[in-house]
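Task card 7
Instruction: Convert sequence to structure tokens.
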Amino acid sequence: MSVSDPVADMLTKIRNAGTARHEKVDIPTSKLKLEIVKILKTEGYIKNFKKVNQEGKNFIRIFLKYDDVNDPVIHGLIRVSKPGRRIYSGYEEMPRIYNGFGTIIVSTSTGVTTGRKAVEKKVGGELLCTIW
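Output:
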């Protein structure tokens, strides 16, 4: 079965795995998903990730991160731009999530990056998702 929005499917799998307190979650790989996962790692929302090849299928295995009382580090994960309604922002109007405590992931002409780095580079782009 094909998925109409693979990024939203990935975010939902991560959100559900965190709610169920799973140690890891596997998602089908793509270049965009891999870049989003790299940002999640550098921003400290997940422990680690690795590319896995099982029976000829490629997956990204994401190891989720929890705090001292076993609550997920990711409190919210929302898809902003959807296939039916793309949302773009210039660097001057880049939204701030929870006054800078959250992260927005942006697809720019220079690649996938956080909103903070996009403002530093003075580039805008499509708002993919928000994490806090």
